[in-house]
Amino acid sequence: MTYCVGLYLDQGLVLLSDTRTNAGVDHISTFSKMQVEEVPGERMIAMLSAGNLAISQAVWNRLQEGVMLEGQTHTLRDVPTMFRAAQLTGAAVRAVFETDGPALRAQNIAFDVALLLGGQIGGQPQRLFMVYAAGNFIEATEDTPFLQIGEHKYGKPILDRVVTPETSLVDGVKLALISMDSTLRSNLTVGMPLDLLVYREGTQRVALRKRITDDEPYFRSVREGWSNSLREAYRAMPLPDWVPG
């Protein structure tokens, strides 16, 4: 399994994914689940994936080679809008299902994939989508300014309480890392290192792409600081006066 999160902020996008793949206790590996298509100054599109690694890799390869959409073959380098990019990604998911679905079904393997697709093309608004295994998708909005895939439940509470569209990019990075740390502590199928991407709205280029390892000083300080803060908050809460001593 995995955990990926995308924050949709006024200042831009913050995207974070782990790198652990798990095909059983004897088959734990590290693979990047973040792919980027960038034409600096013209477009930046990033895709994060959760679920079956073979399926997500096949989807990305089809997006590179070309996918049929409304009678024409397109790639992420030539679609005119982010909405079209989401449609193209959904079409790629369905194409992989048509090819591999029957063989997977014969082996009792679910067609398990979920994708986050975020970026900006030209002078159009930045957008962030979640693409499901059926190829359909939803979009982040001001009311819901973050999307998650994979093992999302452990890292969701902090985002629900704090993230708003007005959250700054630097605060977004901190919140995404706290969300990831909560997941790392609670689920062994999510693991280091992490892949972080920061995109600043209106630039059509990656502002920061960073591999975060166990010995990254800032991430270590976040992990320790968040744990200490939670313990202090717990101690500061009043005891229930209706429980007998």
From TrEMBL:
Keywords, sorted A to Z: Hydrolase, Protease, Proteasome
Keyword Protease: yes
One cellular-component annotation, GO: proteasome complex
Alphabetical list of Gene3D superfamilies matching this protein: Glutamine Phosphoribosylpyrophosphate, subunit 1, domain 1
Top-rank taxon, per record: Bacteria
GO molecular function: peptidase activity
Entry-linked InterPro entries: Ntn_hydrolases_N, UCP009120_prtse
UniProt GO BP: proteolysis
Name of protein: Proteasome-type protease
